[in-house]
């Protein structure tokens, strides 16, 4: 993430790109337990290396916005899922194993919650944010700094469904869409994982007029339909 983002942002600087919109992550909230997660909350206590690198990307973006007046918008994605997703992610693996009659690993016994956000909602948010170029906040005060904006053309938004769902309920939605029951392998919470995520996306809605809205049930069904068609199962 560090080297790749450096290459991208350097290329944007030299190409005089009018606006860089990049993917950050809800993982930057780390040890924070105040719900829902707001862009105003602290993000300086990551509990995994991935989150630390994505937070570093946000700080690098601010530096470039300040030094070179490169407008940047960082979007903190919340648990993205949907068709054409990565095969190593939970929805893909769960669907594959349920159809094959194999067990699925369920961490924290399925009790943690995630703000699952459908890929079409993410894509719409990215497009709208990209179309509205980041500007400096004229009211930014260094004595009481807004962590999501700056006196440089920089901003950060959450983009999530604003509706945390228990993992076990997510699995039930997959079972319903597949038409088979899952074989659950119940496991403790993984190191570096957080028990809950919950997005406050009100700043995104206020700025670009968009709020994710696809329910888990509808989104999971779209994924399963795509999966069966693509893999002919």
TrEMBL record:
Transmembrane region(s): none
Domain of life of the native organism: Eukaryota
Range of residues in the leader sequence: none
InterPro entries associated with the record: Epimerase_deHydtase, NAD(P)-bd_dom_sf
SUPFAM superfamilies registered for this protein in UniProt: NAD(P)-binding Rossmann-fold domains
Domain NAD-dependent epimerase/dehydratase: 1-135
Keywords: Isomerase, NAD
Record-level Gene Ontology MF annotations: isomerase activity
Family annotation (PANTHER family): EPIMERASE-RELATED (PTHR43574)
Family named by the database record: Belongs to the NAD(P)-dependent epimerase/dehydratase family.
Name of the protein described by the UniProt record: 37.6 kDa protein in cld 5'region
Organism whose genome encodes this protein: Cajanus cajan (Pigeon pea)
